[in-house]
Amino acid sequence: MPDKIDAFNEFRTDMNESILAKGTRETKRFFNLDGAVYREGALSKKTKELLGLTASMVLRCNDCITYHILECHERGVTPEEFSEAFDVSLIVGGSIVIPHVRHARSILNELS
Amino acid sequence: MPDKIDAFNEFRTDMNESILAKGTRETKRFFNLDGAVYREGALSKKTKELLGLTASMVLRCNDCITYHILECHERGVTPEEFSEAFDVSLIVGGSIVIPHVRHARSILNELS
Amino acid sequence: MPDKIDAFNEFRTDMNESILAKGTRETKRFFNLDGAVYREGALSKKTKELLGLTASMVLRCNDCITYHILECHERGVTPEEFSEAFDVSLIVGGSIVIPHVRHARSILNELS
Amino acid sequence: MPDKIDAFNEFRTDMNESILAKGTRETKRFFNLDGAVYREGALSKKTKELLGLTASMVLRCNDCITYHILECHERGVTPEEFSEAFDVSLIVGGSIVIPHVRHARSILNELS
Amino acid sequence: MPDKIDAFNEFRTDMNESILAKGTRETKRFFNLDGAVYREGALSKKTKELLGLTASMVLRCNDCITYHILECHERGVTPEEFSEAFDVSLIVGGSIVIPHVRHARSILNELS
Amino acid sequence: MPDKIDAFNEFRTDMNESILAKGTRETKRFFNLDGAVYREGALSKKTKELLGLTASMVLRCNDCITYHILECHERGVTPEEFSEAFDVSLIVGGSIVIPHVRHARSILNELS
Fold first, then answer.
1. Among F48, F57, F91, which residue's Cα sits nearest to residue D24?
2. Is F83 at the interface with chain D, CB within 8 A?
3. Which of D38, D98, E11, F11 registers the highest number of CB atoms within 10 A of its CB?
């Protein structure tokens, strides 16, 4: 019953459309650039998504965590790799990150 | 169907009442001061509400965003002005602010 | 009708179990250490829970606030002491903390 | 004896050059976009710089504060307007912002 | 050779004077309120200063840490109590707090 | 003239010694755990250090950035990989991260 992921994707799609329709030329440039930095390069797309996931965890943004977990999952990040990325997030960001590890775990549970 | 705004306003009113009823003299002083700094002065109330909105977006607080959007809306902030304030928030605060631009956009959509 | 507390406790228990089952040895060490620092010592457990509550409020994490309010309540923190701890959080963290004082107040209201 | 401003400008110019020389195409796009969002539009450049200043104060970044104070000063922000923008920053961000109001004040003192 | 404390106190005194001289009525009210919330009440002044110290550590503000360590020291906080408050800050805020524990330790070393 | 790195290393070594000498058993456990999470595992030590670097950049801690750049450098992170990790940090964390990219660049310049 993957309701968190579905709810996230639906609201995200609807609102991004609305943001881009009503936004400025700069809004579009920001969204395009946000896509571009995660492309395969000197670092692999998988590594970049792991960077995005860890950044999202220490900054404590559940929506961003959901997004990057889905991207990481698609690039073949393994359960062990997820756990170790969560450990780095926990030690850097502290116990205040724990509720977001819970969220991340619930998303991973929905995926499996 | 403006349910986000209604839900926010109801919880806010109830809890602020409870906070002030059970709080100390200092709690009341803080709430009074929070009202006072947004009053018309050398900067217009409209500009101050835009400052409050941008601060709320980069600090990523949806409730505060809802509040300042309602205040900005009442002071005649136009759709174009909202979009440009969101752009400043996005560039200063980064993609971690995107979920809060989505929230802001959903509040603006409810208002229109 | 203590639904916020019940919902929090249920999700927390389920997910912590899942985190520890799937996590690494380091994950467990972090969770153990997180328990250990709040034990009675030179500072009382009650004082340490108040430190944890204030830290959670200025870092603006509702789940952490719920947890530490329950712990403080169990250690006999009085309504007056809660109010004064909220005042310190408000002045240090600013009006961006107000929505979290609302949350804290709603948890205290559920408890009484 | 404007040493803080000079030191800031020198390090900023040197390092931005180094960042752009060694960075990727995306790095350049980010810096260009960062310039573009502050241009005159539906909101005046002066208002946008005040938004940038307030965002920098609540996010507590002294270098960003220095930069936006210089930009605001060039656009004719008055002493009274600066003081009111600092008040909004203080109430939103709390006493943790005070050291940055001190920094902002020291920059304004250097300018006058 | 207590140079960090002296430098902090001198800049703080000078700038606070400048802030209050050039600020608005609301600026003064904020500073007064900031003093008032730490007064002896249901919680002791010592406990409140420990709350302020922990909040400053997890929000990672060295100037605020210096200030609250001096206040805690004056209220008789013992070395063991300081260490335990640092532990709570570390576990809540994570390794990103370590540089601020270093700063706190250097201030305590200057004091002894 | 690698003065930033030397100054960082000297203060870090001195204060860590002081922290561990005067800290509790929990302080030591935290520092040990902080070392353990970066060890080679399902993710390579190099990848974990890049996670630590990105987390430090979006959380805007110069000392942590210096530390992880030195670790990344030792694990053979290339100039191109550094630039792409900075891009992810910039887009996630926004322009408020720019002063920390400047710091990171100045550390890399000292190293070369």
1. F91
2. yes
3. D98
